[in-house]
Write a structure and sequence with these properties.
One of its GO terms (molecular function) is protein dimerization activity. This is HTH dtxR-type domain-containing protein. Residues 1-63 form the HTH dtxR-type domain. Among the domains are: 4-69, Arc Repressor Mutant, subunit A, CATH 1.10.10; 123-160, no CATH class. 63% of the residues lie in helices and 2% in strands. It contains seven helices and two strands, in the order αααββαααα. It has a two-stranded antiparallel ribbon with strand order 1-2. Helix 1 packs across helix 2, helix 2 crosses helix 3 (36-48) and helix 4 (64-86) crosses helix 5. 19% of the residues are buried. The structure holds zinc ion (ZN). Zinc ion is lined by residues 128, 132, 143, 145, 150, 153, 155-156.
Length: 160
């Protein structure tokens, strides 16, 4: 069982490793704005638990197990960010919230949210509906736009 902190570390290590092949204490410390001794302690713990390969003077890489956790956490993160932005939340807030929610999200909930995005991305009424909803979030104005009066819709009308 991984903790929230484990997941954040593995996620950051994964992106650093992708960039340069390995991650050093310094890289992770900069990224998380923590002291090197805190990061070293965490590297030892993650190594003992089998998530990373840690050599004292080299950089770390992820084990299969560590990679799997990083992948799943990142997947949940980007899905959540999409979902929140889909609702009309600004990108910065969506990123901040996604980073917190990713750790506690039940897979069943994650699945339903993913389906929600898929559903409202279809090229039909459900897409129109979510676009009205976003407008409603931003302006508080409820729009009723049927195909006959769509021209006058502030979101879908001509000139928008
Ligand atoms: Zn409309």
């Amino acid at each position: 069982m991984t903790t929230e902190r484990d997941e954040d570390y593995l996620k950051i290590i994964a992106s650093i490793v992708e960039e340069k092949g390995y991650a050093k204490v310094k890289d992770v410390a900069n990224e998380l704005e923590l002291g090197p001794s805190t990061v070293t302690g965490m590297f030892k713990k993650l190594d003992k638990e089998g998530y990373i390969n840690y050599e004292k003077y080299g950089g770390v890489t992820l084990t299969e197990k560590g990679m799997e956790i990083a992948r799943k956490t990142r997947e949940k993160y980007s899905m959540l960010k999409d979902f929140l932005m889909h609702l009309g939340i600004d990108e910065k807030t969506a990123e901040e919230d996604a980073c917190k929610i990713e750790h506690i999200l039940n897979p069943k909930t994650a699945q339903a949210l993913k389906k929600f995005i898929e559903f409202t991305d279809k090229e039909d009424e459900s897409r129109i509906w979510i676009e009205h909803f976003r407008y409603f979030v931003q302006t508080g104005e409820y729009i009723s736009c049927s195909p006959e009066n769509r021209d006058k819709c502030p979101v879908h009308g001509k000139g928008n």
